[in-house]
Write a structure and sequence with these properties.
Length: 88
């Protein structure tokens, strides 16, 4: 089995929530890394792996959370710190 290093562990937070279709969503605060998952355990495993196994850097988001991996502004930073959310 091949050992894989996290893509770029840093100080960014990872947000975990569910989208309107019931899929689990993970997204870092910069909007650069994330994905859709079928269950909470897989979403949490991905977030922990990507953030260097720091549980304090994982935030559970209540309500509906949409995945948006293209939210970069002209400085290369996220326009906002939280993933896009809307009421169910």
């Amino acid at each position: 089995m091949r050992h894989v290093e996290p893509s770029s562990p840093d100080s960014s937070l990872f947000f975990i929530g569910k989208n309107a279709r019931g899929n689990w969503v993970v997204q870092d605060q910069a909007g650069a890394r994330g994905g859709l998952f079928v269950d909470r355990a897989q979403a949490l495993r991905f977030a922990m792996f990507e953030n260097g196994h720091r549980p304090q850097a994982v935030v559970m988001v209540p309500g509906v959370m949409d995945l948006d991996l293209g939210r970069k502004d002209t400085d290369g930073l996220a326009e906002q710190t939280l993933p896009h959310r809307h009421a169910a």
